[in-house]
Amino acid sequence: MNWDDTAPPADDTTGRLVGSAADGEDQAVEAALRPKSLAEFVGQERVREQLDLVLRAARQRGATADHVLLSGAPGLGKTTLSMIIAAEMEAPIRITSGPAIQHAGDLAAILSSLQEGEVLFLDEIHRMSRPAEEMLYMAMEDFRVDVIVGKGPGATAIPLELPPFTLVGATTRAGLLPPPLRDRFGFTAHMEFYEPAELERVIHRSADLLDVTIDTAGAAEIAGRSRGTPRIANRLLRRVRDYAQVKADGRINQEIAGAALRVYEVDARGLDRLDRAVLEALLKLFGGGPVGLSTLSVAVGEERETVEEVAEPFLVREGLLARTPRGRVATPAAWAHLGLTAPQSHGTGGSGQGDLFGA
Q1: pTM, rounded to two decimals
Q2: pLDDT score recorded for residue 6
Q3: Would you state the CATH architecture of domain 273-357?
């Protein structure tokens, strides 16, 4: 079982049960259930194998491991892997984030206090300020930073030697990283969404640690609604556990899991209230589209950014919605999922709202 305890992105503020951001409760539970080694880490087989080779080779040489860049959606295990890297290298870990480093001095203070071999985990590294980013180039490559003292013509640069350390950077938007920074990582890995079978293993492991009795069908029911994300799988497991404790004998089977997730408005494909509201507005009000994002946001009573950044990525990944130059368009799978029949004119222009309000 593996997932991140990273800070939520600015747009993920809806508190959804299937949201990928971790709140305070999530972080506390995740800390207790987090795997401690690569052997315990479920899923991401290719990444685990490659990372194991990198770490073993470094240990055999008695050297610090190469810098590591982990990319992928929230909740897939980037923070967990950073902690495992530190544990495998028997090194301490320092955790910070890109948004927290707004000045080069902030980064210099962190780097100057690192111990030899220490792992520095920098979450959302793409959101770091440009001056700090440029300082990081030299720190990663030469283990040195130049601290500027004074201003104007009298300013002087004082070189500061750093002990060898391992930087583990995590990002949900690898495309925003500048090439000079990306190229300085010795190992890069992209975290993929999990298959249902892998999520079942995550759920069984978490259930054992939480002392929850769950059968194979119950775990499969939860896994199928977890959007390919371990963090969501564990969040759903805890809510189903609550339902089973109050409404049944505490044991989770397929019937109990299904009933619990209906209460929490998570359907068989993992869509929640917001996802369905977007689809229903697109289908029932605009005939399947195309419709502009601003119009669609007003129809569901949400901010434009919430619809675009929180609901749409999963709907697009599931093949229920498509983004086109003229606006958002529902796919045949969306009509089928909501049990509606597409009008004959669907796909030939729809309401045309996208032309008026923009995509």
Answers
A1: 0.79
A2: 40
A3: Orthogonal Bundle (1.10)
